[in-house]
Amino acid sequence: MNIKAHIPNTITLLNLFCGCIAIVFAFNRDFEMAFLFVCVGIFLDFFDGFFARLFKVSSPLGLQLDSLADMVTSGVVPGTVMFFMMQNSSGMSATSYFPYLGFIITLASCYRLANFNIDTRQTDSFIGLPTPANALFIISLQLVKVSNLVTVEILTNQWVLLIITLFSAYILNAEIPLFSLKIKKFSLKGNLLQIVFLLFAVLLLLLFQYMGIPLVIITYILMSVIYNKFQKK
Question: In terms of pTM, does the model score above 0.85?
């Protein structure tokens, strides 16, 4: 029995487990714990592929498991959080069906994950925002809204939340190349973009805390667009 062959898939299933726990916390309105377990799930999501490559045990089963686990952790959870954000938005009645539009994020995440599995262009970089980054963006908005450090009234407007939801669905599947954060060459020149981004991301998180998370994701998208413009010249 090759134990190494089962390690990556076990890590993937732990990612799924974290996603399930995050959903429970989200339904209990404990969004900080939901965010924490999504972060743990994303951390595990990074390492399942790492160990699969390390042990040379990559398989079609592992690829499918990875997408199914991400569907829960990075698809269902942010859709659920957006549902509750819309439900608690100003002027929303208890019988309104409007909050269910938050699950557009889940549908768009599902489409992206399925497309990712058959898109051979996304081996070294991404096309469209990866679902884990989108999940962090959406869930962090709820944390910003309830944070004692800042009051963001705009995040209580149902139409603003709908625009954010539609933007999320678009950017997940947009034909926009985004650079990968994986460091494959141990040289400053070959990783300058990634290093600059990571340093700037740390600075944003230290300065703005929860508010820094969506700012980091937006910065990632803008830096990718600018980088692509210079690459074409």
Answer: yes
3-state SS, residue 44: helix
In whole angstroms, what is the distance from residue 9 CA to residue 189 CA? 34
Residue that has been written with the tokens 């390390």 in this structure: 54
Q: What is the DSSP letter of 42?
A: H
- Kindly tell me the sign of the dihedral angle through the C-alpha atoms of 84, 76, 161, 203: positive
Q: What percent of the chain has pLDDT over 90?
A: 53
Mean pLDDT, the chain, rounded, equals 86
Could you give phi then psi for residue 87, rounded to 5 degrees? -65, -35
Higher-pLDDT residue of 96 and 231 is 96
Q: What is the CATH number of domain 3-232?
A: 1.20.120
Domain positions in the chain: 3-232
Measured in degrees and rounded to the nearest 5, phi and psi for residue 174 equal -70, 150
- Predicted confidence (pLDDT) at residue 209 exceeds the cutoff of 60: yes
| 172 within 8 A of 109, measured Cβ to Cβ | yes
Q: In percent, how much of the chain has pLDDT > 70? A: 86
Separation of alpha carbons 183 and 204, rounded Å = 21
Characterize 127-163 residue by residue with b for buried, 16 or more Cβ atoms within 10 angstroms of its Cβ, and e for exposed.
bbbbbbbbbbbbbbbbbbbbeeeeeeeebbebeebbe
Q: Give me the DSSP letters along 107-122.
A: HHHHHHHHHHHH-TT-
Does 8 score more than 70 pLDDT?
yes
Q: Helix H segments across 55-157?
A: 60-71, 77-87, 104-118, 131-146
